[in-house]
Design a protein that fits this description.
Blueprint lengths: L2 E5 L2 E4 L4 E8 L7 E7 L6 E7 L5 E3 L7 E6 L4 E6 L8 E9 L2 E4 L3 E6 L1
Parallel strand pairs: 2-11
Antiparallel strand pairs: 1-3, 3-8, 4-5, 4-9, 5-6, 7-8, 9-10, 9-11
Length: 116
């Protein structure tokens, strides 16, 4: 069964960095898209980045462009979100997600808190 598991969240000061990981098990996503989303308290879940498993092409929302970098390690079936120059408004629960055969698969999320 396909499962996604995020890790790497934590508390960091403004301007700091974190690297989130999304470990995939039960299925190879080499030809699928993996996305990173986040949800801040009281706000809707927001898509911030994604990467194509087939050609490695990437997308970033305006809110994170130039500060976050998405990458993948095919051998480890793990996807990463490197977050630099973090701001207090980046505070949220971060999730990875994919869609396989029309079904959404989400991880449980990892909390990122950026203090000012």
């Amino acid at each position: 069964q396909l499962q996604l598991a995020e890790s790497g969240g934590g508390l960091v000061q403004s301007g700091g960095s974190l690297r989130l990981s999304c470990a995939v098990s039960g299925f190879s996503l080499n030809y699928y898209v993996i996305g990173w989303f986040r949800q801040a308290p009281g706000k809707e879940r927001e898509g911030i980045s994604c990467i194509s498993g087939s050609d490695g092409s990437t997308y970033y929302s305006d809110s994170v462009k130039g500060r976050f970098t998405i990458s993948r390690d095919r051998a480890r079936d793990t996807y990463y979100l490197q977050m630099d120059s973090l701001k207090p408004e980046d505070t949220a629960v971060y999730y990875c997600k994919t869609i396989v055969a029309g079904r959404d698969y989400w991880g449980r999320g990892t909390q990122v808190t950026v203090s000012s």
